[in-house]
Amino acid sequence: MSVRVVCWNIRHGGGQRVEQIFLALRTHRAKVIVLTEYRDNPAGQYLCESLAADGWIHQASSQPSGRLNGVFIAARVPFVLQDEFNDIPSDRHRWVTVQFDGFGLTGTYFPSLHAKVPHWEYMLRVAARRSNGRHMIIGDVNTGKNYIDEAGSVFHYGNYIDEMAARGWPEAWRHLHPAGRQYSWYSHKKNGFRIDHAYISPLLLPALRAAGYRHRDRKAGVSDHSALMIELAF
Question: Is 0.85 topped by the overall pTM?
Fold first, then answer.
């Protein structure tokens, strides 16, 4: 069995770009779609209904309210929505976890700067609790490693990436491309950063076959992020 997971930050819920976002998602041919900066508003409803009509009938979200950005998961195969752990940060709309037949998946969307520290600490706890299963944590973590995931050294808390790897949860793209350099988001100054990541549990790592970014839709202005694509084979 092979599974393609696509994770994409759609920028503030998608807005008037939702039809373009949906059409782009169709071309990925993914079994599982994870959207970050998803909003529970008319644009989000359009995406839910359009994806369901096209076969991604199993859906869950982190239920962000108002103008908050959250996480949405849609799949062509069934899953069971899982409760988050009790020590989740107070802005819990940034997390959603589901269990498929064969592996689990957590989608997340981190805040920036110092506000992301509680989420990194929570991710470490999630990793410890789920290390005995096949699990992936994927999303926009607003973090990278200085001088390799960006040109300079402006990232805060990149040490957490090393800590995840030390605990047996490598970051998928870096694991497969140790010296590679690609960027998944660009600032208004045209500086590139790789901040969309997938972390793989020790038991799921043997199933990892590929990890890559699709830049075409970002360059076309459909979103300001490139989509992250993960290939698993069991």
Answer: yes
Domain of residue 219: give its range.
2-233
Domain count, the chain: 1
For the segment 169-194, what is each residue's pLDDT rounded down to a tens digit?
Answer: 999 999 999 999 999 999 988 899 99
What are the counts of helices (DSSP H) followed by strands (DSSP E) for the chain? 6, 13
Round to whole Å and give the CA distance between 170 and 155.
18
Angle between helices 42-53 and 18-28 (to 10 degrees): 30
CATH of residue 201: 3.60.10.10
Contacts of 62 (CB under 8 A, 6+ apart): 38, 70, 71, 72, 92, 93, 94, 95, 96, 107
CA distance 25 to 29: 8
